[in-house]
Amino acid sequence: MNIDELLKKPHLSASSVSDYIDCGLQYKFGRVDNLPREFSPDTMEYGSAIHRTLADFYQEKMVGNTLSLPDIQALFEKYWKQAAQVIPYLRYSTGKNFAILLSEGKELLKAYYENVPDEGFTTIAIEEPVGFYINGLDVPIVGYIDLIEQDDAGTIIITDWKTSGKAYSLKDISANMQVTIYQMAMKAMGHTGEILLKLDVLIKTKQPKFEPYYTSRTEEDERRVIKKIKAVWKGIQNNIFIPNDTSWKCYGCVYKTYCNSYFLEEAI
Ligand code: SF4
């Protein structure tokens, strides 16, 4: 399926479904009204620079080049500098600035580099675009899988890279909808063999850490996600955008002013 064609039409993705569930009003501001963000959070741009660095690391690995730690730290520096120079309205969290995050990013990548296990997997694809339909839903689900690898037995390993302020709990791992959707995508695209799912989490604690979390999903897990996706789409089609003003997203919400105005409007 051609991802560019799918992206031109209405579609859903793991992040859009999560956004709607976390706060329907924020979803509306960003994805329906297309309002400009009031600022770009440093955490988002920093995570994106780490992500681009890892993508380059695996691109090189795929063609037989193993980058050194200074190489990947230099890549991060390049991407982080680009973000800091180019992104308008970049807002730093309390106690952070460009130099602090540059140093923290390099340390985080060091933790990754020194602890990522070499499982001997073959790299199949990086940032692989996927798109598929589920029964009874007229919009496609689209996404980009960070990393697809394969082991000697033919098992596919799907990895999603995350940066997080804390280690993941068992619940965080089992509830992650993104990897469930990626598994569904691989099956929809005709993969019939074993699939392993992995969250590679770079943890931004004082002492940076890296944890790879393996997980798997059953057909029942997939059915639950399908049910949620369908409910979300029904809500969107019916213009139901409920503000969740107790959401973790309120702190640092990029549509705070719009949200305040919304609550000042008279209810009808
Ligand atoms: S401030 Fe909270 S309730 Fe308002 S849009 Fe943002 S996340 Fe939603």
Task: Give the names of the bound compounds.
Answer: iron/sulfur cluster
Give me the count of strands: 8
Major sheet: 6 strands, mixed
Number of domains: 2
Radius of gyration: 19 Å
Distance between the termini: 44 Å
Sequence stretches where pLDDT stays below 50 over 5 or more residues: none
Helical proportion, percent range: 40-55%
* Coarse morphology: globular
User: What is the oligomeric state here?
Assistant: single chain
By secondary-structure content and strand pairing, the structural class works out as alpha/beta
Describe the fold and architecture:
The protein is α/β, with parallel strands linked by helices and 268 residues long. The chain has two domains: 1-26 and 120-234 and 241-249, no CATH class; 37-115, no CATH class. Helices cover 47% and strands 19% of the residues. It has helices at residues 3-8, 14-22, 24-32, 42-62, 69-86, 98-115, 170-174, 177-188, 219-237, 256-264; strands at residues 12-13, 40-41, 90-91, 122-132, 141-150, 156-164, 195-203, 209-215. Strands 1, 4, 5, 6, 7 and 8 form a six-stranded mixed β-sheet that branches. Helix 4 (42-62) crosses helix 5 and helix 5 packs antiparallel against helix 6 (98-115). The model has no long low-confidence stretch (mean pLDDT 95). Iron/sulfur cluster is lined by residues 23, 25-26, 243-245, 247, 249-250, 253, 255-256, 259.
